[in-house]
Every structure is written in C-alpha cells, then in structure tokens.
Specification:
The protein is mainly α. It has one domain. Helices cover 80% and strands 0% of the residues. It contains 4 helices and no strands. The longest helix is centred in the C-terminal third of the chain and has 51 residues. The protein is elongated, with a radius of gyration of 21 Å.
Length: 163
C-alpha cells in the first residue's frame, strides 16, 4: 500500500506540473514552435527554439507512464476500492485520449475548441488520479487506525490481566 500511496502522489504532482506547463505553452504562444508530432524536426534532441514544447511533450510522456503504472498497482491491490480501480482505468483511457487529442491539436494548428477540450480532459484526468490518491491515503489511515485500536485494545487486556 505504501508504494501505491507514493506512486499515486508522484503521479498527481507530475500531472499538475504538466497542466501548468501546458498552460504556459498555450499562453506564451509556443504551442506550434514544434510543428511536427510526436517529435520535433530535429528528432529526439530538440533545437533551442523547440525546447518549451519539447519539455511539455516529455513531461506528458512521463505522466502517461506514471498514470499507467498507477493503474497497474491500483488494479493489483486487494484493498483498493472499486471506485479507485475504475478511476485508474478511466485515467488511462484519458491519457490515451490526451495523446491522440494532443496530436490533433498540433495538426489542426491549435484550434481553440480542441485546446479547450484538451485542457478539460486534463482536468478530468487530474480528478481521476486524485480519487486514487485519496483512496490510497484513506486505506493507510484506516490501516493505522485498525492497528492502533488493536494494539490499544491489547494493552488494555494486558493491564486487566495484571490487576
């Protein structure tokens, strides 16, 4: 459970960073600085003029891997809730949709409606990962409370048997 907790919070932080970077890319007007998808014209190593958009794509790829890994750990866990499992699967679906939509946004030269839908899907993805994080923290808290109450009850029994 500790691994799921850490993985899910890291995923949430990286996803938030991606949304922030995406907002910067959009607001600064560099969204088409790298006009090809998925790589910039120079390939894997970006030229200076493509660095911001390339960074956004790199963080997006990292986020996708983290969301997928979070889903795997969520589905494999025997204690996560059904809601968290569903949220993690929806999250992976949204990542796939975001990748496809991100490519379409570039091809369609940053059409305003597509950019808005891309942001909206990102926010829904954030909510899905947040559900998984909340579930992981809730399970840990419940586990600590259960362990604390059982050890606390055990110490009362020990005190009663001593008296």
């Amino acid at each position: 459970m500790m691994l799921l907790k850490r993985l899910s919070i890291i995923t949430l932080i990286v996803l938030f960073s991606l949304i922030f970077i995406g907002g910067y890319v959009s607001a600064s007007g560099v969204g088409l600085s790298c006009p090809k998808w998925p790589l910039c014209p120079a390939g894997l190593i970006p030229m200076q003029e493509f660095i911001t958009e390339y960074f956004h794509r790199t963080v997006a790829a990292t986020t996708g891997v983290l969301v997928f890994a979070t889903m795997i750990f969520t589905l494999k866990s025997k204690v996560t809730s059904k809601n968290a499992k569903i949220a993690s699967v929806i999250g992976v679906g949204l990542v796939i949709g975001q990748i496809a939509l991100g490519a379409i946004v570039i091809v369609e030269k940053l059409h305003a409606v597509l950019v808005t839908v891309h942001l909206g899907m990102g926010l829904v993805l954030f909510a899905m990962v947040l559900i998984v994080v909340r579930n992981a923290y809730k399970l840990e808290r419940e586990g600590l409370e259960t362990a604390g109450s059982s050890s606390h009850n055990g110490s009362r029994l020990d005190q009663k048997s001593k008296s």
